[in-house]
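Before surveying the methods themselves, let us examine one representative protein, written as a sequence plus integers encoding its fold.
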Amino acid sequence: VSTAHPAGTADLNTAGQDALCTLPGVGEQRARAIIEYREQYGRFAAVEEAAAVPGLTEAVVDEWDGLAYVS
């Protein structure tokens, strides 16, 4: 089964700061928060779980539809 994702998408479990900053509503501070959350709590099981990251909201995460995924 192919798990290819189009260019311009970010894997919340592996993306670095630069890739995360391509998501709507994410700048350097929120990107660092995503990475720190991932390091502390482990991999995201679903994109929606990112709403638990300090500084992020469900509304911001909803904007990532088609742009973010989890591996």
About this structure: The radius of gyration is 11 Å. The mean pLDDT is 92. Residues 20 and 32 are 9 Å apart (CA to CA).
